[in-house]
Amino acid sequence: MSAKSAIAPDAISTGAEHISTRGRPVAAKKSDYGAKDIKVLEGLEAVQRRPGMYIGSTGPKGLHHLIWEVVDNSVDEAMADFASRIEVTLLEDGGCRVTDNGRGIPVAQHAKTKESALTTVLTTLHAGGKFEQGAYTVSGGLHGVGVSVVNALSARLDARIVRDGFEWTQSFEKGKPVGKVEKGKAAKRTGTTIAFWPDEDVFTETTEFSYATVSHRLREMAFLNAGLEIRLADEREEAKSETFMYKGGVVDFVKHLNTSKDPIHSHVISLSDVNDDAELEVAMQWTSAYSENVLSFANNIHTHEGGTHEEGFRTALTKALNDFGRSKNILKEKDVNLSGEDAREGLTVVISVKVRNPQFEGQTKTKLGNTEIRSYVLKSLNRMLPEWLERHSSEARRIIEKSLQAQKARDAARKARDLTRRKSLLESSALPGKLADCSSKDSSLSELFIVEGDSAAGPAKRGRDSEFQAILPIRGKILNVEKARLVKALQNTEILSLITAIGTGIGEEFDLEKARYHKVALLTDADVDGAHIRTLLLTFLFRHMKPLLEAGYVYISVPPFYRVKIGKNVHYLADDEELAAFRKDHPKAKPTRFKGLGEMNDNELAVTTMDPATRTLLRVEVEDAAYADEIFSILMGEDVASRKKFIQQNAKDIRFLDI
């Protein structure tokens, strides 16, 4: 990475459009505004103009959202009992093909558009079978924009439908039909195949699908739909394939999530209910872990921000455990009731609801808003949970005892946490002594660099822009919080400094609005020790400051591995891959390997790692909470066998190892 070629400003794509000078708006030129300025967007033009509104971003997350939209349609067929198999293939030429054995998209002429129903569905927003009663009882693709959005953002899309005794095909380029629907050979079975190639003019960051990302999402879908077979194949460089099918559904999901954990009771609790408007499935199991893992879904859509179904579950669970504890005299009269946080320590739970008329917040569907679902889930679990606890009283007692231990630890942690509240240590006069703060009081512009070691902190402090960049040195490796409760973490000096500097508080008192910096960048050496320190920091942030990650405030700084001087010009190279490419043009280049950040002078560290115009920052996103929880449990938990297996399976992907 040469300084001139580095991605500016921060090597991330947010999907947002803005004009600013370090956050300060640039005044727009005045002009007349009249009827001529009103633009009416037709067809799929609105999607092509503002893709972020429909798929979240034009980065990797938005790219994979195209697959989810097509797969969701196939899963809707499965939920309606018309499909039993879905095949997803990552094509050698960069495309993706999704095939199901459902009824097939209708191809007859649509009464209103006078076009084939297939053409209408693929070229018209809000056109689909999700709006009519009878076609689908429940579905994830509520808004009816899914497959048409995929078509709008694809350079090419091919549809192959089998229904009404024949094959039917139609192709599209950049959302527009290439000819009419063509009738092909006779066929007995039914189904839909959609193949698409993302438009490079839209997805400028990358058009390459991640096998791991697709695999984890499809496995999740299979867990949520017991008996549904989902096949994934990759026809690219390293051809591979997997098949997902789980007869146990969400129970198997919980078992999978707890593979590397130590359950405190053998039975996975399985509860289900159904009425005319909704269905409920809950599977849960407590482990010896100190964090909770609550995953909620509505119509197979992962509701990252929870919603009414999750609220109903939390209320019912806390009530059931307290009632059982009181009735069995495990909780004495003098004892304070268990809080929700106590009750959920170590809990892994999957909550899945199927709703006839779901109300999601936004097209990306991250929160369920149906108020009647809160009542439905609460009433159902108020009936079923006490019954399970009575039938499995010995296991229920172990759950209560685990919660009581959590309560004692939480009380101790609260006393320690008082030391980190903004009204005391978090006041500017009581910030960590080693924090070199910035002068800006605007948190949206301020950046905090968490730097490995005092030797790197010196150049970082001298090379920063003190107006908006703060430096916090961290000495050595912080506590692994995966193996310790919060009360122990709060006894760690480095963790206390981190909490105090960020300003949000921690645990039940966390308040994102109090974040003193909207960029928290982890700046560690580019070696094994640096990677370990970064992992420990990420573990802490994921377990105890997760909203900071979800808000997109956490970044990883990418310092260069190499410096190469050619004549009077100095080039900085990110890794071995960049060095190899550089040597093609400069075969006699003699690189200098940076052994640590402390070896860089002020200017080098500023130019390569801190200057917004030339640095590279990688934003840390929690795209798959279940997989993230699994990885942290494997890498940082107590299960050595799972960690060893993970290392063996992924060793081939390591490109650089500093020994």
Tell me, briefly, the overall form. Answer: globular
Strand order across the largest sheet: 7-6-5-8-4-3-9-10
- Tell me which CATH architecture of the largest domain applies here: 2-Layer Sandwich
Got a strand count?
23
Question: Helix- and strand-based class?
Answer: alpha+beta
Hey, roughly how much beta strand do the residues contain? Answer: 15-25%
Mean pLDDT: 83
How many angstroms does the end-to-end distance come to? Answer: 23 Å
User: What is the CATH C level class of the largest domain, in words?
Assistant: Alpha Beta
What's the number of domains?
A: 4
Largest sheet: 8 strands, mixed
Determine Rg (CA atoms, Å).
27 Å
CATH superfamily of the largest domain: Histidine kinase-like ATPase, C-terminal domain
**Helix count?**
20
User: Which fold name corresponds to the CATH topology of the largest domain?
Assistant: Heat Shock Protein 90
Helical residue percent band? 25-40%
Low-confidence stretches: 1-31, 33-41, 129-136, 421-429, 655-659
